[in-house]
User: Fold this.
Amino acid sequence: MPDASDPTPPVADSEIDQIDSRLIDLLRRRCELTGEAFAESGRCDVSGLALADARRIDESVSAHPDNWLVSEAPDAVAAWLRHAASIGLARLHRSRVAYLGPAYSYSHLAAIKYFGDAAPMAAVATIPAVFDAILRDDVQAGLVPIENSTDGRVVDTLGMFVRVDIKICGEVLLPIHHNLLSRTPREAIREVHSKPQALSQCRTWLASHLPAARLVECGSTTVAAETAAATPGVAAVASIEAARQYQLDVIEASIEDNPNNVTRFAVLGRQFAPPSGNDKTAILFQVKHQPGALADAMAVFKQAALNLTWIESFPLPQTGAEYLFFVETAGHPDEPQVAGALQQLAAITLRLEVIGAYAKAS
Assistant:
């Protein structure tokens, strides 16, 4: 048995120390290379670097299928690499990312998933404020919800694309698991607070298990968690991360009515992402208000053999019965198949804008 007074560390500990030292050196070098890439770009394109890192990390993880750590915990390995990448981005001037706050909201969690948790972020109060922060050059990138598998489109996001020239350069798919959080036992809960969408997505569970509780809408799941932490008898519908932050008990986990509840977030920037080989193109267009005009536009995609992955209509502001249409198709605008379809659409539409080109999220 080793002598406890022996100052010599075990061989395994010594090797771990050496590995940690090498990891620190490698992380420093990675940060230096990120800075060099930033300087060589000739512009403050931090969002582009983040996009490139995201693709590179996915490819790196996929390239090691025989590594037992990757096969057992691919998400954890990818998260570790994203964190390393975000440390490099955090060193760059004006590299902040705006998101719909406050902290520990689902938008915050989506931003962490995409940019890494070391990336400097700015929480703002509304979806329009995310767009405005990019337009003012206060931040380099932004992240907003665009649709939910239960509640559908996010109207505030679509409305901003109609009004301002900001591009979608990435997307994040975030599984949404709502949890009932409180410091009060379930039988003593008299109010449940959360944002309207979260309460809506849990309406069946709440009606069945807390029929006497009053549902109170608030601005965010984080605000709900803060209230639950400060007020006896109040519960929040929020994330597990909010439970940890505000020291709340998880009264019941995953109370969402749809177990496959997913919110899609758009990563915003000034430029499109370059082709990755597995891309999407998002456009908005307006057609003449006459019979067959929309059908003619849809036929363009059919003739080009382009698969549509998203279609939304949006009332045209200050008109009685006219609409804009948001369409997402497989492919990148740089590809001849997509470029040809866009050229044909331009000839038969009143308004046509490409609002996004980005790699498909896994």
Notes: The radius of gyration is 24 Å.
